[in-house]
Amino acid sequence: MTAAGATPIIFVHGTRFSAGQWSPQLAALREDFRVAAVDLPGHGARSAQPWSLNAATEIIASAVDSLDCGPALVVGHSLGGYASLEFARRCPERLRGLVLAGASASTRGPWATTYRWVAGLVPRIPADRLARWNDRLLRRLYPPEVVQATILSGYAFHTLPAAWGEVLGRFDAGAMRHVAVPVLILNGEKDTVFRSGELAFARAHPHARVELIPRAGHLANFDDPDAFTDAVRRFARQLPVRS
Questions:
Q1: β pairing state of 72-77 and 95-101
Q2: Fewest beta carbons within 10 Å, which of 130, 159, 203, 236?
Q3: Average pLDDT, stretch 109-125?
């Protein structure tokens, strides 16, 4: 039973995934919080919708409104983290807190060149082959209860070039100045690329802190679902009330 006054929580998935990425967290948190996970444009049930950050922020806003509990904690992973930063800038009245998971690297950094190359390469590889590779990788690394919902939801490789094309070059630590609520920067200890700007991101905001999931990589919510969920739970309970 959801506790009265509990912070509502919206989860925003990363590149190529869908709302299914968050099945371990939704199952663990729904007894104590109102929770929901979105499909970003071009992903999951919105596979046919063209990608744009404008549409992404509208989808997150609609999810917050659908819970009808006031401002929400938004938890964004990777692509979803950068989309959540944009949401924080555009819709501050709907936000109670922000978790950036695997999304604290400047997208203007040197690694962006490699990601642009990958974005250009992906359309040349048949989508069914990419899906098989991803299925095999997830099944080899993680137990079925962690990744089955992600595998069943499929992958949005067709959206990757447009999504990365808009995000790369757009975000750095300066984006934190537009966030008016507390921020948890939640990274896998071994996620060296997306941890690369975590200290700069934290220093750019007066109420931000960094927390690491030991031995986890970029998919920290898969690598250690319990530790990831516990971090989100603790942060949600610490947030001040906003009306």
A1: parallel
A2: 203
A3: 90
Residue 3 lies in a domain: no
Please report where in the chains the tokens 């992906």 appear, as a residue.
122
CA distance 111 to 130: 22
Q: What does the buried/exposed string (b/e) look like for 57-79 if buried means 16 or more CB atoms within 10 Å of the residue's CB?
A: bebbbebbeeeebbbbbbbbbbb
Is 2's pLDDT higher than 80?
A: no
Give me the domain span that covers residue 47. 9-238
243 within domain boundaries: no
Q: Is residue 173 part of a domain?
A: yes
**% of the chain residues with pLDDT over 70:** 98
Contacts of 196 (CB under 8 A, 6+ apart): 104, 105, 106, 109, 111
> Cβ–Cβ contacts within 10 Å for residue 82, how many?
28
CATH number at residue 60: 3.40.50.1820
Query: pTM for the complete prediction?
Result: 0.97
- Cβ atoms < 10 Å from Cβ of 17: 26
**How far is it, in rounded angstroms, from Cα 169 to Cα 109?**
8
Distances (CA, A) of 223 to 14, 171, 188, 234: 15, 26, 8, 19
Indicate if the pLDDT at residue 85 is higher than 80: yes
Cα(229)–Cα(232) distance, integer angstroms: 5
Phi/psi for 222 (5° steps) reads: -90, -40
Residue 203 forms part of a structural domain:
yes
Cα-based distances in Å from 189 to 100, 197, 198, 219: 14, 13, 11, 11
